[in-house]
Amino acid sequence: MKRFFSIPAQLTAIILAVLLFGGMVPTSFIQGSYTFSSIFKEFLGALLPFMVFFFVVTGILSFRKNAPLVLGIMLSCIFISNAFVALVSYVTMMLFGSQVVCDTALTSLVVQAEPIHSLISFSIPLPFNGIHALIAALVVGIVCSFVSVPWLERFFLFGKKWIEYCVSYLFIPLLPLYILGFLLKIRAEGMFVCLLEQYGTAFMLIIALQVVYLSWLYFVASGFSIGAAWEAIKNAFPSYITAFSTMSSAAAIPVSIKAAEENTGNRELASVAMPIMANVHLLGDSIVTPILAMVTMTVFLGILPGFMQYLSFVFYFCMTMFAVSGIPGGGILVMIPILKSQLGFTGEMVNVIMTIYFLLDAFGTGANVMGDGALVMIVNKVLKRVGVTN
Asked: What pLDDT is attached to residue 67?
């Protein structure tokens, strides 16, 4: 029964309902539903900078408890891996982007229909944005790693706990209603069918890239042996199923540790690496988010980002990955300020990418966990090379 009431199942049901019956919904109901979505988004936007700050600070403080050299190598590998996958996603869009773009311009569709507006319009002023929160968190986290202040560390952990509580018990349960208001709006404005066509093709591209890249990564991690790579994939596949069904990398950690032990023969490394990687090595997100972002830019703006603009986005993207926790959908929530500041996303573009991201979250989470299993094998080889482990 939980599977039928999961977020992807609810969103799928909402999309089908809007597609089939959205034309019969009165305009007053659409406006009321979209008003709820707008208000909800405003409160979520006010929470995001605090989420980034507390998650990054507590993440840095937790790393301090492990061996510095092992952490340094591991974090370097994680950063390089996230960045490399994001660049592969860029090259993929350069090659195949023209095949995932809807022929009908969204701008013309919007003009032809009467736009839907929120009944209430307001904004919550914030003293700092997501980028400021990220920079402040890096500085505070590094300083507190060298200067221990127990009461301050307890405060950071308390703040993270309450933000996780708000997201898990307020945002996630109300997410279907938030999406409903937005989908009814774009259905009434004539954009819905085009978006389904647009992102249906993008979905196929994302899944294909995940399969190809993960196969290649396990091939490299296994010493370029097809047989060894296949065995490693079979060992890690239960962790994929666990992550896919729960939409949580954290829920798959016990299975991931067991698979990492089998694939590396290093129990100590598996016990340390997999919990860390579950939060910060997000291979699936490094494919899903950039491709969806570039598709959304193409749909709404008619352009793809230039290479230097995309490099800037990748840097902030990889840094922000350290702010993501095991909350379903956390990968896109903390990325919203980056999308706005680096790629020029508007509020409507954010709504679109959030909707599609949550539908693909199970696939992205599964790819995240499988990527962790391959990267821990690479880290193990590096540690052996530098003489840290036998």
From this structure: 46
How far apart (Å, rounded) are the C-alpha atoms in residues 356 and 201?
Answer: 12
| Calpha distance 6→12 (Å, rounded) | 10
**For the chain, percent of residues with pLDDT exceeding 70:** 82
Residue 230 dihedral angles phi and psi, to the nearest 5°: -65, -40
Nearest to 380 by CA among 287, 262, 286: 262
Angle at CA 160, nearest 5°, toward 60 and 71? 20
pLDDT of residue 121: 78
What's the token pair of residue 213? Answer: 């890249």
CA angle 370, 372, 374 (to 5 degrees): 75
Instruction: Among 178-187, 193-202, 300-309, name the one with the lowest average pLDDT.
Output: 193-202
Tokens of 232: 């490693």
Cα–chain center distance at 384: 32
Q: Is the pTM of this model over 0.90?
A: no
In this predicted structure, the answer to whether residue 219 has a pLDDT above a threshold of 50 is yes
The answer to whether residue 113 scores a pLDDT higher than 60 is: no
- The C-alpha angle with vertex 244 and arms to 19 and 336, in degrees rounded to 5, equals 65
Do residues 54 and 133 touch, judged by C-beta distance below 8 A?
no
Q: Which domains does the chain have, with CATH numbers?
A: 7-385 (1.10.3860)
Number of H helices, E strands in the chain: 16, 0
Residues near 350 by beta carbon (within 8 Å), at least 6 away in sequence = 41, 336, 339, 340
Q: Strand, helix or coil at 335?
A: coil
Task: Give the residue-averaged pLDDT of 171-175.
Answer: 78
Residues in contact with 106: Cβ distance below 8 Å, sequence separation at least 6, in sequence order: 191, 194, 195, 299, 300
What would the pLDDT profile of 28-47 be if each residue is shown by its tens digit?
898 999 899 888 878 877 88
pLDDT in tens, 120-134: 877 777 777 666 776
First CA to last CA across the chain, in angstroms? 47
Collapse the DSSP code of 228 into the 3-class scheme (helix H, G, I; strand E, B; otherwise coil) and give the result.
Answer: helix
Contact 2, 246 (CB under 8 A): no
Helix axes 192-221 and 283-301, enclosed angle (nearest 10):
150
